[in-house]
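Researcher: Structure prediction, please.
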Amino acid sequence: MSARRALVERFYASFDAADVDAARECFAPGEADAALATWREFTERVKGAAPDARLQVVSAIEEGDRIAVEGTLTGTFTAPMRTPKGEAPPSGNAFSLAFADVFTTAEGRIVRHTVYFDQVEFLTQLGLLPG
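Model: Predicted structure follows.
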């Protein structure tokens, strides 16, 4: 496993453990604050509503200072989820959501993280939108 892949795996393990402080160690100094504010909100929202949520790497491609990951977010919606419009009641639905992450790294740390996922698909799987 490459050093970049190991870094991504550590970053995902921090989500699995709901440990945002561990995620901070994956980011380059100065880059962590803005990225971690978003990551903290995502982690708290998803792990609060689906404590069993996990991120899994399906495949990864590396080139230069970047690594692109195809992954899956899995879990079960068992607790209320905070949303911009209030709290959404749990549906008990299991979910398996495909996502793509693109990381740019320097000196063994993340300097940029971009996430792509289908929000409508996620909300549908959670039972918050009609299927």
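Model: The chain has a mean pLDDT of 93.
Researcher: Thanks, that helps.
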